[in-house]
Structure to design on (560 residues):
């Protein structure tokens, strides 16, 4: 698959001119390597991770190993590295075999993680290379790095103390919540999809939720943090569901070039058949078993605009670069933020030559608005989700907002019934929550002087309650563990609705509660009670809080 390098960089007199955030990232990685053997870079889809990592290799010099898990990603890296460094890389994949000596001691080997772990004569193929052969290891799509095959590669080559290991990913959170801190010492740089949209490097995301009554996920189970794939496929393959999805695609996507994510092979081809019956020649489907040449031909037709709808299963989530995608249809409901972000990211790239060359974000934003692709429409297909909390566009773009604001934004999106700019929704939700909090504070003030009024507070934001930041620190994010049933019960007894929190947010709150218990500070329930009456509970001990609550009770719940 050919990478569109010029969507990320410009060239002046043969020199590569990087975007500001790419330069910041390269410097951050360089600084991190001075103190750490490994580091992670989080950069949203469409912002040029491959180009940035290639420049890291160019700056470091010497020999490097680039590891990926799909042939498309390896082909993309091969082309990028050759163009950006002027040295064609060697390939270690299947029948292709790299040399174990690279001329003058410079150059790059690109290896498939499957090939490196393959055994020949009882030894893994990666052992052809001495760990000291390379000075830099790059793992592409690094959210896979905690899988056993990836761990084996990093363990083997990181036995070289001089080697530096860089992981690149758009989605650091895995469905099974395995912490990437097991592999990487430090998160050196982060530039999320929200940053890219606000700074004018990515197009705005418009979200429209499509309700189809026939979609019933109430009987679908969960596996490793996401919906059970087999049961989801059965739910989405029903004829009424596919006809409902097709009808919505034809009505809402209009003439937009649309990438459709489906739940199974049968779902992809069935949906394409229905679309073609309604609009001849408009759709094609691809899956993991589509012959390579056939897949290339179909994608080329889609890229050229000869096909409006490309239905895929498990193909276009990583390394699929078609900047003129104008609509992404999520006909594969998910609970995984990482998977949803990968799907949305396929449509956020601006058209070629739209943003580069503009110095200021306002200029880039205006150039996008004036282009033939002013935004990307996300069609989010939902129905009866049952006990599942499905991920939405507001979850993906709401990284800098509290869980309460993201939930309000999702409700606002549900109410509008028309496409809405996701960042604008989040800003409106922030205003709604701020107003609600102000009204809450005013009501609490009234409560402190009206003893005869009975008042029962709603559950407070647990981060405000415990005076902690919702984002984990560099040291905390590496060791996130899924809370045990007993820990979840502790949250419930403390009046904290853990079902609205992610695993990392639950762990952040639990860590704070453990710390407060060790320091003999007031419990969340005590803090909640005393905050109703306007008391400052910062560093208040358990015994002092207990005594104050007793005095309040004895005083008929009047402030003392």
């Amino acid at each position: 698959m050919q990478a569109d390098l010029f969507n990320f960089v410009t060239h002046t007199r043969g020199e590569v001119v990087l975007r500001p955030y790419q330069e910041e990232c390269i410097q951050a990685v360089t600084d991190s390597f001075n103190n750490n053997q490994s580091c992670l870079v989080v950069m949203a889809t469409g912002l040029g991770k491959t180009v940035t990592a290639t420049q890291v290799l160019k700056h470091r010099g010497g020999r490097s190993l680039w590891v990926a898990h799909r042939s498309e990603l390896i082909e993309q890296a091969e082309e990028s590295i050759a163009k950006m460094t002027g040295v064609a890389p060697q390939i270690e994949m299947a029948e292709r075999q790299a040399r174990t000596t690279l001329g003058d001691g410079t150059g790059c080997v690109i290896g498939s993680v499957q090939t490196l772990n393959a055994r020949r004569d009882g030894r893994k193929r990666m052992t052809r290379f001495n760990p000291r052969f390379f000075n830099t290891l790059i793992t592409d799509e690094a959210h896979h790095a905690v899988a056993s095959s990836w761990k084996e590669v990093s363990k083997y080559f990181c036995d070289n103390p001089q080697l530096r290991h860089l992981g690149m990913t758009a989605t650091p959170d895995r469905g099974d919540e395995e912490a990437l801190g097991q592999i990487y010492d430090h998160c050196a740089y982060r530039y999320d999809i929200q940053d890219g949209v606000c700074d004018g490097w990515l197009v705005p995301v418009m979200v429209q939720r499509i309700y189809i009554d026939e979609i019933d996920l109430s009987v679908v189970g969960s596996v490793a943090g996401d919906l059970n794939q087999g049961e989801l496929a059965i739910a989405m393959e029903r004829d009424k569901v596919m006809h409902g999805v097709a009808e919505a695609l034809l009505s809402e996507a209009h003439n937009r070039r649309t990438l459709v994510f489906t739940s199974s092979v049968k779902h992809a081809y069935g949906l394409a058949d229905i679309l073609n019956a309604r609009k001849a020649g408009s759709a094609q489907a691809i899956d993991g078993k589509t012959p390579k040449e056939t897949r290339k031909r179909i994608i080329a037709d889609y890229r050229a605009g000869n096909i409006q709808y490309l239905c895929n299963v498990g193909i276009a989530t990583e390394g699929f670069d078609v900047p003129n995608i104008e609509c992404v249809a999520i006909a594969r409901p998910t609970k995984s933020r990482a998977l949803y972000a990968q799907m949305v990211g396929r449509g956020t790239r601006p058209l070629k030559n739209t943003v580069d060359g503009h110095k200021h974000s306002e200029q880039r934003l205006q150039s996008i608005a004036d282009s033939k692709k002013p935004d990307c429409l996300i069609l989010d297909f939902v129905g009866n989700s049952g006990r599942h909390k499905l991920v939405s566009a507001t979850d993906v773009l709401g990284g800098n907002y509290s869980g309460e604001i993201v939930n309000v934004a999702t409700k606002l999106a549900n109410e509008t019934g028309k496409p809405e700019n996701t960042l604008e929704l989040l800003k409106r939700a922030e205003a709604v929550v701020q107003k609600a909090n102000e009204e809450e504070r005013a009501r609490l003030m009234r409560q402190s002087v009206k003893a005869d009024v009975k008042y029962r507070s709603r559950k407070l934001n647990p981060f405000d309650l415990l005076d902690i930041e919702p984002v984990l620190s560099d040291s905390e994010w590496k060791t996130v563990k899924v809370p045990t049933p007993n820990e979840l019960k502790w949250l419930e007894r403390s009046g904290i609705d853990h079902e609205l929190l992610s695993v990392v947010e639950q762990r952040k709150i639990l860590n704070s509660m453990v710390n407060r218990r060790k320091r003999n500070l007031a419990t969340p329930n005590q803090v909640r009670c005393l905050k109703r009456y306007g008391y400052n509970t910062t560093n208040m001990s358990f015994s002092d809080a207990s005594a104050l609550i007793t005095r309040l009770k004895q005083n008929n719940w009047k402030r003392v």
